[in-house]
Amino acid sequence: MSDRLAQVSQHLSTSHGRGLLAGEVAIITGAGQGIGRSAALIFAREGAKVVISDIDEKRLASVADEIKAAGGDCIGVAGDVGADDFPKKIVDATVAKYGKINHIVNNAGFTFDKMIHTTPDDTFDIIMKIHVRAPFRLIRQAAPYFRLKPEARENRSIINVSSTSGLHGNVGQANYAAAKAAVIGLSKTICKEWGPFGVRCNTIAFGLIHTRLTAAKEAGATMEIDGKKVALGVPGATPEAAASNPFIPLRRGGNADEAAAAMLFLASPLASYVSGHTLEVTGGAGI
Asked: Which of 96, 142, 204, 247 is the most exposed place for a label (fewest CB within 10 A)?
């Protein structure tokens, strides 16, 4: 965790006793690095018992060690969020360990960029599977722990990650933009169906956040999905380019800790009357 985020988190914890999420249980997918890692760290810092997941078992174990070293409580459940058995696997592990679920942060995902006329069916389908179908199936699996009688209700929320690509479209991202637009509709529907049970559901739409997905493609970062290597990143991307981008009023990209802090807000009691909303975390871009 960065010094800046640690200072903010310390202030929040001091102001709210044991933390904004004290005693609550949060599932965070894609927590092996980047935004998911930062979210896991700050949620744990704010008192949550964190269930973290990632397709990369080694990275997942490293984050779990970080949380425990800082005095946090967590378990890691490695796996592919798109696998048929994943929702039951992580929900069962969470309930077996902690007995309840307060929050789900559907953060796992990646980009597989191609122009529309060169996008094959499987490239489109895998992005829809990971960014739309997987969050839906995890939320559905967890339904019994959210649709509760009034006397059993605590602070409960679902956060689905979208993007400015889902709000405005983006060249070379027909699959990703379609998926991230669908996530917004999913969140609004959950808000309306589960609101009577006291459950809040929001979407967070990130602009440029510096992670491996937005780093220079020339760096060679890849991941393997269904036996295929997928190249990650944006051709020619640099922090300097972001600083000179006239479409970002703050003249910089965000970092993973800033992205995670926005997630914390949506999960916390500070957002107790915020539901069905899409929070744009963009440095002012797209307004």
From this structure: 96
Q: Flag whether 132 is in a domain.
A: yes
pLDDT for 32 equals: 96
**273 annotated active-site:** no
The CATH number linked to 248 is 3.40.50.720
| 211 to 33, 122, 232, 237, 259: CA distances (angstroms) | 9, 25, 10, 11, 11
The total domain count for the chain is 1
Does some domain include residue 66?
Answer: yes
In a domain, 287, yes or no: no
Separation between Cα atoms, residue 194 and residue 191, nearest integer Å:
6
* Residue 91 vs residues 28, 138, 189: alpha-carbon distances, Å: 11, 8, 21
What proportion of the chain, given as a percentage, has pLDDT over 90?
78
In degrees and rounded to multiples of 5, residue 12 shows phi and psi of -65, -45
